[in-house]
Design brief:
five-stranded parallel sheet, 16 helices, 10 strands, transferase, Exostosin_GT47, Exostosin GT47 domain-containing protein, Exostosin, signal-anchor
Length: 416
């Protein structure tokens, strides 16, 4: 027995070649793992839009995000191009809207054959939402619910404000009683669209609609009860445009500033009184009559550096979008105005925003903007032109898609 025990090989010591080899292999493997992990971590920090795996992350599947070159090009006009890119891709992939059935076809919206006029944004949205991939026929899949009322059409039929309010109230109350979706959130996940002042006035008679639901309106001034964190500013666009978009034409812009319009607000009266006789500012206290020549008004946008956009008594954002389209830097002259896509775009990178009291120093403020600053503003303005144009069918990043993006952002904060 003793001889048998002594014949067995001794247990390997911690310094045996086998142990050393095993420990060396494990150490090398751990080192490689650490190096790989560090590399991937650093790579992900420097490339936030690219996954370290060959398979795209779930939030980017079936979606195209802005390329790095696009992000660099657009970084001057977005508050955060990376965040916008990722959220936009997720919106395209996931966002769904249920459209309630229309009411009386003689009262509610029917898409016209021609989408023209200063209230055409309303018509474009109604048409775009129906032809887009955001629409769902299954209300259980919907993130938001669209109430298709058109006070503009009712007004065109001669309906009084009082009757419009009654019609809207009856329709909304019928939806509340027929469907369970309003009561789940008290209407916080519902929205309606109007680009006419009568729409704002008609719906004001229904407090539960105004206070609870999201209003997408072309009158985003605070005096109509606009709530920035809840409501959405709809860009008022006059399409089709009379002339092509302006761009890369700064050398042709020899007039310092331009405005022509009705004096239907205090700030417009002051603007005309102070500057209508100035030789460097082209200020007219009435609209330019067509009799003065073909497209005279639009051509003035081409020759001007800064187009004055004073607040008016009614919907007036069409002047802003005209300025953007024709390449004339918009000068927002208003104390309270929520600009379209304000939470997406940095308006100070392509416009001049002034308080109404600045009207007395308007000329000097504009002259103090250097040539380099003006060129930068103009270049950025050209970048955002596509965001202020409607298309049918809708096109990626156009006005419809940015309105939907604004709605997408707001649906995330609905908590009940």
């Amino acid at each position: 027995m003793t001889a048998a025990k002594s014949a067995q090989p001794p247990p390997p010591s911690s310094s045996s070649p086998i142990n050393l080899s095993l420990r060396g292999s494990l150490l090398a493997l751990a080192t490689l793992t650490l190096i790989s992990f560090t590399y991937l971590s650093l790579n992900s920090l420097h490339s936030p839009l690219q996954s370290s795996s060959s398979t795209p992350p779930p939030t980017l599947l079936s979606s195209k995000v802005l390329e790095e070159s696009d992000l660099e090009q657009l970084s001057d006009v977005y508050h955060s191009p990376e965040v916008f890119s990722l959220n936009y891709a997720e919106m395209e992939r996931r966002f769904k809207v249920y459209i309630y059935p229309d009411g009386d076809p003689n009262t509610f919206y029917q898409t016209p054959r021609k989408l023209t006029g200063k209230y055409a944004s309303e018509g474009y949205f109604f048409q775009n939402i129906r032809e887009s991939g955001f629409r769902t026929e299954d209300p259980d899949r919907a993130d938001l619910f669209f109430i298709p009322i058109s006070c503009h059409k009712m007004r065109g039929k001669g309906t009084s404000y009082e009757n419009m309010t009654v019609i809207v109230q009856n329709y909304v109350e019928s939806l509340i009683s027929k469907y369970p979706y309003w009561n789940r959130t008290l209407g916080a996940d519902h929205f309606f669209v109007t680009c006419h002042d009568v729409g704002v006035r008609a719906t004001e008679g229904l407090p539960l609609l105004v206070k609870n639901s999201i209003r997408v309106v072309c009158s985003p001034s605070y005096d109509v009860g606009f709530i920035p964190h809840k409501d959405v500013a709809l860009p008022q666009v006059l399409q089709p445009f009379a002339l092509p978009a302006g761009g890369n034409d700064v050398e042709n812009r020899t007039t310092l500033g331009f405005w022509a319009g009705h004096r239907n607000s205090k700030i417009r009266v002051i603007l005309a009184r102070v500057w209508e006789n100035d030789t460097e500012l082209d200020i007219a206290n009435n609209r330019i009559n067509r009799a003065t020549g073909h497209l005279v008004y639009q051509k003035k946008f081409y020759r001007t550096k800064f187009c004055i956009c004073p607040g008016g008594s009614q919907v007036n954002s069409a002047r802003i979008t005209d300025s953007i389209h024709y390449g004339c830097i918009p000068v927002i002259l208003s104390n309270y105005y929520d600009l379209p896509f304000n939470d997406i775009l940095d308006w100070r990178k392509f416009s001049v925003i002034l308080k109404e009291n600045d009207v007395y120093r308007l000329k000097q403020i504009l002259k103090d903007i250097s040539d380099l600053e003006f060129v930068a503003l103009h270049e950025n303005l050209v970048k955002v032109q596509k965001h202020f144009q409607w298309n049918s069918p809708p096109v990626k990043y156009d006005a419809f898609h940015l309105v939907m993006y604004d709605l997408w952002l707001r649906h995330h904060v609905i908590k009940y």
